[in-house]
Structure formats: C-alpha cells, structure tokens
TrEMBL record:
Keywords: Decarboxylase, Lyase, Pyridoxal phosphate, Spermidine biosynthesis. One of its GO terms (biological process) is spermidine biosynthetic process. CDD domains: PLPDE_III_CANSDC. The keyword Lyase applies. PANTHER family: CARBOXYNORSPERMIDINE_CARBOXYSPERMIDINE DECARBOXYLASE (PTHR43727:SF1), DIAMINOPIMELATE DECARBOXYLASE (PTHR43727). It comes from Weizmannia acidilactici. It comes from the Bacteria. It holds the Pfam family Orn_DAP_Arg_deC. Residues 11-331 form the Orn/DAP/Arg decarboxylase 2 C-terminal domain. This is Carboxynorspermidine decarboxylase.
Length: 375
C-alpha cells in the first residue's frame, strides 16, 4: 500500500533513508577501524535489525530486556551499561553480553569476579565533569549531581584490575567539536590510566548523520585515541542511526476555536512523541510553515485529557478539515521506545516503507495491548 492508505496513527520507517544513515556510519568504521553499535534506547525496531547488522558492529543496552533484544535479534556484539544491576538479573546479563560496563566501583567490586569468570569484558563509566550542552540539563550526564559515571574525586585506580575499558557518555544531539572538548577533559582527568586499557567507548549523542556534522573531526578524535594509547574505539549512537528516517502519519479528527484555530488529531504528543514535551521541541510537519507564514495557522493537539498535550503551532495553505492527513517527520527515534497508552490511547501501528515507496504494516495494536499493562 501507499503511505496515504495506512491506518492512522502509524509510525513509518523509511528503509532507504535508514540505510543511507547506516552507510554513513559504516564509512566511519571502515576509514578508522572503530566499531559502532546501535543504542537501542533510541531505536529498537528489531524487524530492521538484519539490515542494521549488515552495517554496524552490534547493539548496546541499558538493561536486561534491551540486552536480550540485541542478543536475540541481531546476534553481534552486545554491550550493556546500567546505573546499577539487579542481583536477580546479572547472571543472565553476563551470559548474553560481551561488554558489561559498571557505573561505580562498588558495583564493579560486587560483580567483577562473575564477569571475569565468564570471560567477558569489564568497562567502567567515568564522568569527565565537562558539560557541553546548552539548555537541556535533563539530558546532560555531566550536570551537577548527575548519577552517571565516576568522577576524578572518587576514582580508585587500585581497583582497576580486570577493567579493560573506560566509557563516557556526555553528548546529546551534538557535533564533533563537543566530542573533542570532552576528550580533552577525559585525557586531563583520566589520561594516566588510558595506557593500561584495551578500549574506550565514546558513548552516544553523536549526530553523525546530520548534514552539518563534522565527520573528519570525529575521525580525528577516534584516531587520536588509537594512535596515542593503542585503544580500540567504540561509539554507540542511537539517533544517528535512524535520524530523519521515520514519519508519524496522523488524521485530523476535529477543529475548534479558542482565541485561535485548533485541530485535534488521532495522535498525542504525550503518548506517541513524548520528547516533544520533554525536550521540548517542535517536530517537523510536511507541507506546513511557521505560525503566520501561510494563510491558516492551527495549534495541533491530541485526544488526551492532558491540557498540555499540544504538538505545536503550524500554518497551512488551506483550512484543515476532518479527515485530513498530516505527516510528521523525524519520528523514528525516541517514539516507539517511549510511547505510552496513557488515557487508553491506542498505540500507533508500525510500518516500513521500502525503497520503491511501498508500505507494509508490520505491527498493529489494540485494546489488549493497553489492558495487559494493567491488573
């Protein structure tokens, strides 16, 4: 079917655009010898893992369930980091993951022997205390009081025996100049221990597939760690894998007025695109303009009872009416992985748009998917 025939709301992953992103990432791997793994926290549509696995080195997880998904559906390198591991999950995590990264020396001491006995690699997350983000403290692992990573003040080099790599994650939708700044801080605070490591993980937040991203500088940063310390370098982007490779197709249910024109859609910012409210940001909408740019401006909102369930203000060439279809862009990342059934909202269907422009629905959801989460 064509995109106009899909049920709504519906997430649509554009296979061609996804593969273009993967080719860019694979090019970095080939030119530098680094390894790039998919951060499943941003995008975990496992139907496409065979395609992603053709280009990337594997997956990384934030806990047991993501680790299982990567292990079962991609079956390549499988990394995991968690702020803390549960006693009743650690054995299974060790059995299916290659790199187990700890957030503290106390967790390292508690589980190190098990990991080493299983022949797996141990990593330690460090916090270089180098904030390069502006305006998004909620996504800044280097913000004051952050629970992520060991700071220089609390670093205990006498406990590094068995640790083969260091991990940091400080970026969010950022360019390579911020990575370079972070690397300077890492070397300044932890450089004396880098020579005894085998690998280093730059974490995620690298917007590598964005048009203005400085790939040569990224590769320079990778080669710097390789040349100076002999380290194998890992990156674990999530957004860059599926950036601009997905859509959310919606339908206008009604239009009302309250000081301005308002359109009610069959989707929800709160339920289906939560980063619109958390980040916050205004998602791209095909065929629309900024408020006032085109003749007809509308505030777009969802069906839920949350007053703030608004997607944003957009302008159009003609008035909106019931039944009109609207297509939001960049809806692959942090959508399916974070959506909810708040208010009993149905989850959007999931479809793939192939290289010829044809769409296939691969998953639909119903009442039971809402009910099964309750008791």
């Amino acid at each position: 079917m064509k995109i106009e025939q899909l049920p709504t709301p519906c997430y649509v992953i554009d296979e061609k655009k996804l593969e273009n992103n993967l080719k860019i990432l694979n090019g970095v791997m080939k030119r530098t010898g680094c390894k790039i793994v998919l951060a499943q926290k941003a995008f975990s549509m496992y139907t496409l893992y065979p395609l992603i696995g053709k280009y990337l080195s594997g997956t990384t997880a934030s806990g047991l369930y993501e680790a299982r998904l990567g292990y079962e559906e991609m079956g390549k390198e499988n990394h995991v980091f968690s702020a803390a591991y549960r006693d009743d999950e650690i054995d299974e995590i060790i059995s299916i993951c290659d790199h187990i990264i700890f957030n503290s020396f106390s967790q390292l001491e508690k589980f190190k022997d098990k990991v080493l006995k299983a022949g797996k690699k141990i990593g330690l997350r460090i916090n270089p205390e180098c904030s390069t983000q502006v305006g998004h403290a909620i996504y800044d692992p280097c913000s004051p009081g952050s629970r992520f990573g060991v700071t220089k003040e609390h670093f205990r080099p006498e406990l590094l025996d068995g640790v083969s790599g260091l991990h940091f994650h400080t970026l969010c939708q950022q360019n390579a100049d911020d990575l370079e700044t972070t690397l300077n801080a890492v070397e300044q605070k932890f450089g004396e221990w880098l020579p005894q490591m085998e690998w280093i993980n730059f974490g995620g937040g690298h917007h590598i597939t964005r048009e203005d991203y400085d790939i040569p500088l990224l590769e320079k940063c990778i080669q710097r760690m390789q040349d100076q310390y002999g380290l194998e370098v890992y990156l674990e982007p999530g957004e860059a894998v599926a950036l601009n490779a997905g859509y959310l197709v919606t339908t206008v249910l009604d239009t009302v007025k309250n000081g301005m024109d308002i359109a009610i859609l069959d989707t929800s910012a709160s339920c289906h695109m939560p980063d619109v409210l958390e980040m916050p940001y205004r998602p791209p909408l095909f065929g629309s303009g900024e408020p006032g740019e085109k003749p007809y401006t509308y505030r777009l909102g969802g069906q839920t009872c949350l007053t703030g369930d608004t997607i944003g203000d957009y302008s159009f060439d003609r008035p909106l009416k019931e039944g009109d279809r609207l297509v939001f862009g960049d809806m692959a990342i942090y959508t399916m992985v974070k959506n909810t059934t708040f208010n009993g909202m149905p989850l959007p269907a999931i479809a793939i748009r192939d290289r010829n422009g044809d769409c296939k629905v691969v998953r639909e959801f119903g009442y039971e998917d809402f009910k099964m989460r309750l008791a």
